[in-house]
Amino acid sequence: MDTVEAAEEYDAMEHGEVDEAFVLRVIELGANTGHYLDVGTGPAQIPILLTKQCPNIQITAIDLSKEMLKIAKRHVEDANLTNRITLEFIDAKTLPYPDNSFDGLISNSIVHHIHDAEKALQEMGRVVKPNGVVLIRDLIRPETPADAQGFVDRYAADDTPYQQKLYYDSFLAAFTIAEVNQMLSKMDMPGTIVVQSTDRHWSIERSV
Q1: Helix residue ranges per DSSP H, the chain
Q2: In the chain, domain spans
């Protein structure tokens, strides 16, 4: 998502239903108040939705795409939430925050984009408080490219060919639930579990 085209195309894709389901699950896990970190915020639609639902939550939203952060800044300003959502250009693999800094940790569909996903997950576990809400969600890698194309046909049929390619490539770059469990076993994120949250997503979850 380093180019203007990729960032704008991603932002134009229909994420509303998935984003709303993500925010609903965060609230079900106990999100209500405090300072949250959103890793890989993209166009910042999830922190916007979450802060509207939970007026006592502040969010630091990070991304490693400057073009995506430009779009996020526009959306946050349009929503009049600049006093509650802070956008930062930060690498998830080297988070500049002390241990146990955040009351909650959220991340949607970013893990497969990160070159060293295990390191990023370790960093996420380090900076969230041991009793904090955690919801990290991403795509499940299908067994075959044909299965990946099936998901594209089902969920992105109305998107442009470029958007469909972004979605297809994301499936192929994603992890299986077994791989996520293996990574999770190597890090300090007590009380978290890995679940299949939709027909195409896994989630690392922790409730309060």
Answers
A1: 4-12, 16-28, 45-53, 66-78, 117-127, 145-155, 161-173, 177-184
A2: 4-140+175-206
What three-state secondary structure class fits 63? strand
Model pLDDT for residues 112-151, shown as the tens digit of each residue? 999 999 999 999 999 999 999 999 999 999 999 999 999 9
Task: Name the pairing type of β-strands 102-108 and 33-39.
Answer: parallel
At 77-113, the pLDDT tens digits run: 999 999 999 999 999 999 999 999 999 999 999 999 9
3-state secondary structure of 196: strand
Reading the block at residue 10, the tokens are 């991603």
CATH number of the domain located at residue range(s) 4-140+175-206 in this protein: 3.40.50.150
Q: What is the pTM of this model?
A: 0.93
Q: How far from 202 is each of 21, 28, 193, CA to CA, in Å?
A: 13, 17, 10
Q: What spatial distance separates the first Cα and last Cα of the chain, rounded to whole Å? A: 33
